[in-house]
């Protein structure tokens, strides 16, 4: 699955717009007299010295005499003193062109500074040389944003003079050493908004002399994505009565939700997802009259739904849980729940019945996530909900065998996830028109059947994999949005060839057709898919040659187990992004291309972010592994079980980052070059069942990560080089080479033994490796089309990687769907500066 949403075009437009605006401002300022205060100018100049402005973003800071005209600087019209410094890098700007270096906090000595925004750069040092005790004036600072730099801070005591701060954003700054962060912010009585997301905060400890925090003005608090590793203290929700936005997502918070939550009567947005919260929900949640966004998903909460959400204004039902709510306020609570538009409680251990009554009051509901839960769903067949959802997540729930008919009434669905929900029966007409229009459709792993070849699917993400669809593939319409588009129809019984309509889908980034009964010659389509990063056509009956032009972004190419014939085109070895190439079990013949191999990705060290969504079967170490995504850490070349002949080009052994190399079951001849010793990441090497000859090079003993080696059934001779590595494999790795000797095979006779001082050419290899490493930067730019938007939206990028680190598929889908709603500008303003625009 590919998450990536290519937004370059609008971004470029925005960029152009902002540049034009910027130039306008500049030219107005040009005509003004110099009015900059000398003292301010001096402070700014000191600040400027710390910055490494390698991209000239601050070029005006030296050429303009008037510091009030410097980029980002604003002065007061009357006093002419500097009041504002805004060097925030637009998130839509090229993220590789940032200011770096030091933030000298002497900048806070600007007497009249009220607004300071240095966010979204790559400053990596912050210095507080003298400012701590030297601020004699009362601070005017009300807005401070240093978020999303590469900073680390040991303490936040420097904040205390700035008691007029209303907006404080330090997200993305590593604060794990700041043990008293709560006290530090507690010194800021005027604070309205506090964002400390991605700060690596690790405690909720306050000095025992403070009874509880008193941030009495606070309206917005974002502590998401930290590593608190403790319970929410009982006083936590006593922070302030006025809080409207609270985000504690993914912060490693344990324990129960304190009932003091009820103190937050103005709360509109409550996000507690992806923590370790347990126990049942406090009654309080149903008594929060203004709540609009409630996300408790992916915790360990249990019990049945709290009254306010699940209750009917129906006396029997109320009685069941009357111990939880006092009778008098229930009707009004329910009345007020009608403001709820976002309800996400999936991924817990809730149980009980969900029926149409549960939702009878929720007419504004827009997002509903009950995925991965144990609820029993009881909806009447003719239920028409009071809401029109845009996003519905019901995966891993037990819905089947019938497709829930109420979903057909939802006319504005943007995303629907019914994966693994046991559905086999649909109303063909209604189902057809539903799936034709939904942009983000996840119906994986059900038992859906039928022929959908006459449909034209309009979605950008189409996951129909692991069902029993038969007949031809559906058409897909050319998508007008210009966003990335993923189709996964793997593990079905689709037959016939790829429909012609697919050709026009220019933004296809992931195509997964693995394990169907598709046939014909695909390949003239491929050159039209210029954004393609992942192509998996394996386990089908495709035929013809593979002479086609492929997208420069292609990272994964799997043609395994088809009927492809002819030679391997040279071009395949010039795909600079390719890191997974699986052509095994075809009828490919001829010799492998001899050329300068330009598989840049196979020789570069992997950046953390090069991976591609799309499930695949990874064949390595003699086994098959199911992967949820293709991680470029696992670089693979598998050409096994074809009719390849001739010598193995030595260039293949220069792909120093490859982890799996399988050339077995071909008719290859020649020797293993000693350069193989440079393939230091090799974990699985299979050259068996060829006609390879000569000695096994000594340098192979350098392959310290090698776990599986198969050189059997060739014509290797001489002695197996000594080295723990090669002796560690058992006989079967070497068997079938009559002239090979030495442990673990039989002892060599003196004739057989013929040691030629084969010292590994590590020097050459490492030179070559570093050469290729140098290509990394250019490569990164090439990868832009695939990873671009993730760079732009840093917070999402973090979240995304956390997913990749193994949180699970569900998070991904949720994320992806969230990203989608994000894009539709429905996220609350404080969800991230990156949403603006
Ligand atoms: C300034 O930044 C550039 C690019 O990031 C880097 O190559 C250079 O070494 C930096 N210079 C200093 C003095 O840090
Ligand atoms: C200062 O000037 C800006 C435009 O240059 C204007 O928008 C703003 O209203 C002025 N403020 C005062 C207090 O005059
Ligand atoms: C700041 O204060 C320290 C000690 O209080 C003093 O040594 C230093 O000179 C002061 N710096 C400035 C710039 O005033
Ligand atoms: C909290 O702070 C406000 C304003 O600073 C003050 O008026 C109030 O008394 C404080 N409350 C407590 C319980 O400390
Ligand atoms: C979170 O903190 C705990 C202990 O404080 C530590 O063991 C763990 O590695 C941390 N997790 C992350 C993701 O930093
Ligand atoms: C929280 O505040 C409420 C009233 O505002 C008070 O009754 C309660 O004792 C406080 N809880 C804690 C743990 O301080
Ligand atoms: C419910 O909402 C209405 C209007 O927003 C408000 O007047 C009423 O006080 C609320 N009821 C409760 C119990 O908060
Ligand atoms: C889920 O809740 C049930 C009781 O409702 C309990 O038996 C079960 O152990 C819980 N599962 C987990 C994983 O906590
Ligand atoms: C498919 O769904 C079933 C339940 O319907 C589940 O047990 C299984 O793990 C799912 N398989 C995959 C690959 O998601
Ligand atoms: C598809 O459409 C054609 C022509 O309209 C029709 O003959 C055929 O039966 C349809 N196939 C399916 C599976 O509905
Ligand atoms: C290798 O790939 C890079 C980047 O795609 C390209 O600039 C270069 O021309 C290629 N070299 C050859 C020999 O094809
Ligand atoms: C191989 O040679 C070693 C000594 O070099 C000897 O101990 C061992 O018994 C021999 N093994 C065989 C199978 O001949």
List the helices and strands and how they pair.
Layout lengths: L7 H23 L7 H12 L1 E2 L7 H4 L9 E3 L6 E5 L13 E5 L10 E3 L4 E6 L3 H4 L8 E3 L21 E3 L11 H6 L6 E3 L24 E3 L7 E2 L13 E3 L5 E3 L13 E3 L4 E4 L13 E3 L4 E4 L3 H4 L4 H6 L9 H7 L5 E3 L4 E2 L2 E3 L11 E3 L6 E3 L12 E3 L21 E3 L10 H10 L2 E3 L6 E3 L4 E2 L3 E3 L4 E4 L3 E2 L8 E4 L4 E4 L11 E5 L4 E4 L13 E3 L4 E4 L11 E3 L4 E4 L13 E3 L4 E5 L8 H4 L7 E10 L2 E9 L4 E3 L4 E5 L12 E3 L4 E4 L13 E3 L4 E5 L12 E3 L4 E5 L4 H4 L11 E3 L20 H13 L1 H7 L1 H9 L1 H14 L1 H15 L14
Parallel strand pairs: 3-5, 4-6, 5-7, 7-8, 8-9, 9-10, 10-12, 11-13, 12-14, 13-15, 14-16, 15-17, 16-18, 17-19, 18-21, 20-22, 21-23, 23-24, 24-25, 25-28, 26-29, 27-30, 28-31, 29-32, 31-33, 32-34, 33-35, 34-36, 35-37, 36-38, 37-39, 38-40, 39-43, 40-44, 43-45, 44-46, 45-47, 46-48, 47-49, 48-50, ...
Antiparallel strand pairs: 1-4, 2-3, 41-42
Helix pairs in contact: 14-15, 15-16
One 2-acetamido-2-deoxy-beta-D-glucopyranose binds next to loops.
